[in-house]
Every structure is written in C-alpha cells, then in structure tokens.
Amino acid sequence: MAVYTVLEESDIASFIGRYGVGTLAGYQGIGDGIENTNYFVSTDVSQLASETSTADQRQFVLTVFEELERSDVEFYLNWLQVLNDGGLPVAAALVDSHGSSLQTVEGKPAALFPRASGGHLDNVTVEQAFSAGAVMAKMHLIAAQHSAQHDSPKNFAWVEDSIAKLLPLIDDADAQLLTDSWQQAMATLPQYELPSGIIHTDLFRDNALFDGDDVSCILDFYSAGNGRFGYDLAVLVNDWASEQDGELNDDKHRAILAGYDSVKARSQDEIKAWPLLMQLAAIRFWVSRLTTIHLPSLDHRPGALTQTKNPEQYKAILLKRQQLA
Ligand SMILES: Nc1ncnc2c1ncn2[C@@H]1O[C@H](COP(=O)(O)OP(=O)(O)O)[C@@H](O)[C@H]1O
Ligand SMILES: N[C@@H](CCOP(=O)(O)O)C(=O)O
C-alpha cells in the first residue's frame, strides 16, 4: 500500500481549496507505487461558475513526494509541463490560484495532477507495443530540442558504484558475470555516438496507462535525467518484450522498434549499439533489484522492501541479450 503520509479529509479539502477546482467529493489512497504517497481525489464542480463541462465531478491525483528533494520535484514538474506542451500524453501538475504547482504537505513537496483515463496492461499486444515505441520516440523528439540537465538517480555512475558495493554480498558466479558484463559494456560504449537528452529511464508497463491500443498517460518521471535515447528504448523493450525466461518476443520487439522508427528513425550507431544497449538496461535493473535485497539501507524508496522484484529475471534477460551480440 503506497500511502505513507496519511491525510485526513480536512487536509485534502484544504489542499484542493487552493486550486478552485470545486469542493471535495471523495478520496482514496492508491495501492500501487513504491516511492510516493498517492490519493485519487474527486471534486464536485456543480457550483463552479467557470465550469463549462456537463460532468458533475472532476478527478485528480494528489501526490506527496516522500523522499525527493524539493529542487528535484521542481525539475520533474517543469519537465512534465514541457512534455505536456509538446503534446505527449502525460499528466502535468495543476497550477494553484497563486501560480504555483509545487505545494507542501507535512513538510514534504506535494502536487495535484489530473487523473488520466485508461488502465495498466497485463498482456501487451503488438499494436500496443507499437504505440509504446511511438510515444517514447515522441518523448525523445521533445527532449532533443531541450538542453535541460538533470542527473538521473540511477545513472551509470550509480550502477558502477552499486556493483562495487554488491560484489562481496552476492555469490562468486554472479559477481564474475556482473563485473565482466559491466566492464565489457563500458569499454564498448564509447565506440558509438549516441544521441541523448532527458530520458524517462523506467518506462516499464506499470508506468503507462492505455485506452485500447493507445497510450493514455506515461507516469512516474521521478527517475528521469540525462541519458542516451537508445538506452531508454532498451529499458522499455526489456520489460515490454521479454518472455518469462528472458528471451525476446520477436513480434513485440519488432513492433516497438517499428513504432519508434515511425516517429524518430534511429541512427546507424543506435542500431549497431542495440544489443549493447539492451545489455546495459538489463544490468541496471539486475543491479537495482540486487541492491534492494542486499543493501536495503541504501534504497531510498519507502515501499521497496515490501514490493521486492526478482533480480534473477534481469540476470536472465542479460544472458539472453549477450547471446545476440
Ligand atoms: N495522473 C494519474 N492518473 C491516473 N493514475 C495515476 C496518475 N498518477 C498515478 N496514478 C496511479 O498511481 C499509481 C502509482 O503512481 P506512481 O507515480 O507510479 O507511484 P510511485 O512514484 O510511488 O511509484 C500508478 O501506477 C497509477 O495507477
Ligand atoms: N521498474 C523497476 C522498479 C523501479 O525501480 P527504480 O530502481 O528505478 O526505483 C523494476 O521493475 O525493477
């Protein structure tokens, strides 16, 4: 259950009051998520003079950022606005009557977002895989036009540092595989000139909502930062197009790449570096999942331990991707 900051009805009503979006009609803590506190909130807009729609209620998500620094939240809210202005399906924070999107709740940063329609996918069709690739390419096109700078909390420097800390804690065969794979990848990466910008870094299926075949909202930008676009795409493919044993599902893999290329054609170097990028993305999540288990005190996310994800899955994906190189 991802509600760490418990809010009373009166807290939520006064929070909502800053926005002029009607009176509180209902609220419910959101069970999904591991990092922040989220509530679904609905308001009654029937008394609002400005309301032109026929609906009686509007739906929002109230987020309390449990661990992020205020300056980081500020960056993410601005970035969401940039993506929203560029036409990407994201939920940009509402601005209150004083012109601010960033609030404070119990001393922590907080914001109000429109609630997006759509649901999470259990099984991905090739049409949905195509849409996911296309929407990521659109996001990268917007990012390529901006010179924003932000360190992703789990960038390659973090991976390298975490590997060093993990080596004494994991079995010898895994330690060897991790060391060799990482060193080989880092030695090969500079051969390629790979375009970069602000990337999502964690676009797993649980961070996207779908209406039918279309992405209705990309969620959870709170690990975004500078990185290579091809690496972001590899993170997506490893989650959306892997079988249980880590093997690539050819149809979904092809559909994601076709969707991506239909919006932003990959460069020759991005294509040549593709197996390497998938390996890097696999190492990153093998390492973060190992870290949650072996170094829990370093994991800043309050719900990480209760929602532990299986590191072996990403080791299997790494081994399968190495066979493609
Ligand atoms: N704007 C939104 N519209 C609809 N659902 C949302 C929205 N924001 C969050 N959610 C729901 O809340 C869940 C948790 O949000 P997320 O940002 O992933 O949390 P956390 O940062 O804690 O991991 C999402 O998986 C989604 O189901
Ligand atoms: N998608 C990740 C969970 C989020 O991980 P984080 O390391 O970016 O906080 C996974 O499935 O491991």
Automatic annotation (TrEMBL):
<comment type="similarity">
    <text>Belongs to the pseudomonas-type ThrB family.</text>
</comment>
<keyword id="KW-0791">Threonine biosynthesis</keyword>
<dbReference type="InterPro" id="IPR050249">
    <property type="entry name" value="Pseudomonas-type_ThrB"/>
</dbReference>
<keyword id="KW-0418">Kinase</keyword>
<keyword id="KW-0028">Amino-acid biosynthesis</keyword>
<dbReference type="Pfam" id="PF01636">
    <property type="entry name" value="APH"/>
</dbReference>
<comment type="pathway">
    <text>Amino-acid biosynthesis; L-threonine biosynthesis; L-threonine from L-aspartate: step 4/5.</text>
</comment>
<dbReference type="InterPro" id="IPR002575">
    <property type="entry name" value="Aminoglycoside_PTrfase"/>
</dbReference>
<keyword id="KW-0067">ATP-binding</keyword>
<dbReference type="InterPro" id="IPR011009">
    <property type="entry name" value="Kinase-like_dom_sf"/>
</dbReference>
<protein>
    <recommendedName>
        <fullName>Homoserine kinase</fullName>
        <ecNumber>2.7.1.39</ecNumber>
    </recommendedName>
</protein>
<keyword id="KW-0808">Transferase</keyword>
<dbReference type="InterPro" id="IPR005280">
    <property type="entry name" value="Homoserine_kinase_II"/>
</dbReference>
<dbReference type="GO" id="GO:0004413">
    <property type="term" value="F:homoserine kinase activity"/>
</dbReference>
<feature type="domain" description="Aminoglycoside phosphotransferase">
    <location>
        <begin position="28"/>
        <end position="264"/>
    </location>
</feature>
<keyword id="KW-0547">Nucleotide-binding</keyword>
